[in-house]
Amino acid sequence: MNDIVIQAHELTKKFGDFTAVDHISFEVHKAEIFGFLGANGAGKTTAMRMLCGLSHPTSGSGSVAGFDIAKDPEKVKASIGYMSQKFSLYGDLKVWENIRLFGGIYGMKTKAIASKTDVILNHLGLMSEKNTLVRDLPLGWKQKLAFSVSIFHSPQIVFLDEPTGGVDPAARRQFWEMIYEAVDQGITVFVTTHYMDEAEYCDRVSIMVDGRIEGLNTPAQLKQETTSTSMDEVFQKFARKATRNQD
Amino acid sequence: MIAVAVKNISKTYDKVSALKSISFEASKGEIFGIIGPDGAGKTTLFRILTTLLLADSGEATVDGFNVVNDYKAIRQRIGYMPGKFSLYEDLSVEENLEFFATLFHTTVQENYHLIEEIYKQIEPFKKRRAGKLSGGMKQKLALSCALIHKPSVLFLDEPTTGVDPVSRKEFWEMLSNLKTQGITILVSTPYMDEASLCDRITFIHQGKFLDVDTPRNMIAKYPSKLLAVSASRMYPLLLDLRANPQVLSSFTFGDNHHVTLAATYSVEELAAYLRLKNHEDVLIQPIEPTIEDCFMQITTTADE
After folding, report:
1. Which residue from B162, B168, B255 is facing A162, i.e. has the nearest CB?
2. Chain B partners of A246 at a C-beta cutoff of 8 Å?
């Protein structure tokens, strides 16, 4: 199939004797929501850093948006969006300044940034907050703005690293509706989360245990395979197999 | 016996009102959960009760001591695990633990039984610097340090934020064991599923407590009949549910949508409406609300 936008083949990362990511292989299709689950320390962040062109694989290969992650990491970075709960926007810049900054970093023209800024802010209902410092926004709004900024330059793929941590239940759901909208526009979403209800919203989910991908399927199939009634149960069954005690 | 009593506590930063006249009591040996998102006022309340911050108005006692006048006595009696990792990163695991024991004029040996279950999981790494620990291990060390002087009240500010579901479950198992030792636990969390593990909970929303009750009673008080609705295409289903004026609320909820209907609108009418919208494999089932349903219902009502 030629709609594959992320491909990992035996992708491995070692730090000294420690194998953080151990020969993982998978494919993600265009406009898919791919949930990347695993316990703390299972290797998710290391794997994600390799896919974003931030960390060089020890062995194996991967491609993102058609670019080799080892040979063309800069082209990979230009084709993706990234957002995490820990860092997303600059609190001491205004709403519009953050958009201007990230648009500029991704090489957009000033005019295009200006017109698209208003479109985004209207859509978010944040037009009145255009000149507000981001640190003064409620967390739920900030995360929605951060997501809009991460896809502002129309990337093919957006990587979301625990985007909804600490956000209230209603805002968490609004956030997911924005994800659905982005997918409707053809953007592929690669997301990590500790909320197992959110795992249900993904088209397919992989579960990492001790650096390896131990489960990969649709939520419904994973539940069936493990005779579980919820993704929480599925996760508990997989993650309890972990022997690595780094966490 | 009352372990924590709070009466009309308010706190304002500049112009932002962080706590608006909060009152509640927590009994000795109780796990009291403060459930709410980031920015709701949880940390401000914890800082006032641990004598690190003065309230603008109102009164509070911890273990019978006033948070303003008797702050020294309170500091001897409580354990506090702040949301942000606050141990000494350049001390080793065991050095941190010994340091906190010494501060409170006790020894690790004397109260080892309290922390044994938690500490033995990180003991293999006791020579490692705290700054080099993973998130889950830091959390276990922080809890051990907060417990080593056998506090009567334990304050845990978002101890499980960013922690994976398996470690979260283990952490709560530890808390249940501490409770049997008679320690009162005030714990805040943004994870709604943890609420059911508390004896009593409150929802904190924009600086106010919206109701205090047992998790079971919170669920029993849910005012509407709740339905779980699913179909083959879930996102279009959600949009169609929203477009129906007889649908009062509809939220995504794992593999189905949780829906409440106007009193005059039946499940059969909803099924007919969804068939008309060409949804396939429609399944509508009455279900019991979860704490998260209650939180959303109560906060939405409070906002109106």
Report:
1. B162
2. 134
